[in-house]
Design goal:
The protein has 134 residues and is mostly helical. Helix content is 51%, strand content 6%. The chain is globular, with a radius of gyration of 18 Å. The N and C termini lie far apart (55 Å). Residues 53-69 have low confidence and may be disordered.
């Protein structure tokens, strides 16, 4: 039998550029989430891409503290109000939304000359950032 998880809260600190914090705050506000909920949700979503291929469903679906009152909850409820979805179908529906938002965000940032695609570096880079010099 698995040992019970410690669900008490603890603090995690990170330092990001001011512009990034402002963007995260704006996005969290749009999703009606606190900054803590937003960061926790984005980290958990990002970690799903790093799960080993043979991870059990319990491991890949677990979250210590599920987000509450966020945009994802609203999106899932809206999807399910019209029809029944399997886990895979729901995952695809919400992932497509993230991909679309990422694409829109990258286009907007490129239009504002905040980021650019660097073939030399094999990906996107901040304009004027440390890795920007080609």
């Amino acid at each position: 039998m698995d040992e019970p998880r410690d669900t008490s809260k603890s603090t995690v600190k990170t330092y990001v550029p001011a512009y990034q914090k402002a963007e995260w705050k704006h996005h969290a506000d749009e999703l009606e989430m606190s900054q803590s909920e937003f960061v926790r949700t984005m980290v958990q979503a990002g970690r799903r891409g790093f799960e080993p291929a043979d991870a059990s469903a319990e491991e890949s679906n677990s979250e210590d503290v599920p987000p509450r009152g966020d945009g994802l909850e609203t999106q899932v409820l809206e999807l399910l109000s019209d029809e029944t979805y399997s886990w895979e179908e729901l995952l695809e529906a919400v992932t497509n939304d993230v991909e679309s938002r990422l694409d829109d965000t990258l286009e907007e940032l490129q239009a504002r000359n905040r980021v650019r695609y660097s073939g030399r570096h094999g990906g996107y880079t901040v304009v004027g950032g440390e890795s920007d010099g080609e």
